[in-house]
Amino acid sequence: MSDVRTWEGPSARERQAILARTSTVAIVGASDNPARASYFVATYLLSTSPYEIWFVNPRASDILGRPVYPSLADLPGTPDVVDVFRKASDLPEVLDETLAAGARTLWLQLGLWDEDVAARAQGAGLEVVMDRCLKIEHARFAGGLHWAGFDTGVISSRRARGLPTA
């Protein structure tokens, strides 16, 4: 894997279209630890999105009161999007499982980038999103960025009166 990024992912409109036609999301690498990003994303998606969410983790049995499946092959249906929270070295294997599961989109979370995996996925007909958070993108298009603390209510870059300076 090279540090140089030459692959171009879908535009904002294309990502919005992916999310608009999505009804099921499998979160691979889902965690029951509230300090993990996958837990926060799952909490947001369950409470704010219209998606059916499936958790995939071979070492967990329950996350947020829902069943957890050991692999994509064990899901009760075909996910539209496979949202990946795994280390970069696991991505080729996750792609193999994604292809076998029949998903339409491979979505690699923030920090995950592998151009070889992306090229292989696209060659097999998958849409690919890399180094983007599905929760942030959903919130961006659904007007829910306040969930991540982005909407502070401050429109100006001016310092509020009465705040101490450094």
UniProtKB/TrEMBL annotation:
Transmembrane segments: none annotated. Residues 18-112 form the CoA-binding domain. It comes from the Bacteria. It holds the Pfam family CoA_binding_2. SMART domains: CoA_binding (SM00881). InterPro entries: CoA-bd (IPR003781), NAD(P)-bd_dom_sf (IPR036291). Gene3D superfamilies: NAD(P)-binding Rossmann-like Domain. PANTHER family: COA-BINDING DOMAIN-CONTAINING PROTEIN, CYTOPLASMIC PROTEIN-RELATED. This is CoA-binding domain-containing protein. It comes from Modestobacter italicus (strain DSM 44449 / CECT 9708 / BC 501). The lineage of its organism: Bacteria, Bacillati, Actinomycetota, Actinomycetes, Geodermatophilales.
